[in-house]
Design a protein that fits this description.
The chain is of the alpha/beta class. The protein contains five helices and nine strands, in the order E-H-H-E-H-E-E-E-H-E-E-E-H-E. The strands form four sheets. A three-stranded parallel sheet has the order 1-2-3.
Length: 169
């Protein structure tokens, strides 16, 4: 994306997989919460912790156990006045089983499944195909009301922000 302003990857595996001379030259501000990745690739680093809602402390983000959630906190701290969610459906297959490392009958992410070397099996509560734990964390963000957030993800399970068509923005 040529107009991408901020690129965030929480772990070193993400950066190792996607790093290229083209990405290095891309003008986007590149961020991580992983010190080793920050040092290896010259990325901006920010601390993270598990806490409810968005952090207002410019030195730490709340990770919510999800990179999309972390990114929302990061861009809020960077001064975003409105955050548009695209690709935030939080839906898994009804037959997903993280403990057995079974994706189930559909891919876990709006953008498709991760490449094999980036597969991970987060500890999540999935009920009826919805990542209910993370939906709850977004509800905490909505209750804070710190920044305007619009959800432009068709069929998203996140029901606490106004839904809009991306083409209507």
């Amino acid at each position: 994306m040529p107009d991408l302003a901020v690129l965030y990857g929480c772990n070193e595996q993400f950066w190792s997989h996607y790093w290229s001379p083209e990405l290095e030259r891309h003008p986007a501000s590149k961020w991580t919460t992983n010190r080793a990745a920050a040092e290896r690739y010259g990325l901006n680093w920010i601390a993270e912790k598990d806490a409810p809602g968005l952090s207002a402390n410019r030195n730490v983000i709340h990770h919510g156990h999800g990179s999309g959630y972390s990114l929302v906190n990061l861009v809020y701290l960077l001064g975003a006045e409105r955050i548009v969610l695209l690709g935030y459906d939080l839906k898994y297959a009804a037959d997903y089983d993280g403990r057995a490392q079974a994706i189930g009958s559909t891919e876990r992410h709006y953008f498709g499944e991760y490449p094999a070397d980036l597969q991970h099996w987060p500890s999540v509560q999935v009920k009826a195909g919805v990542h209910v734990e993370l939906v709850g964390k977004y509800r905490e963000v909505a209750a804070q009301g710190l920044v305007e957030i619009v959800n432009c993800t068709p069929g998203s399970a996140i029901d606490c922000f106004p839904m809009k068509d991306i083409n209507a923005l």
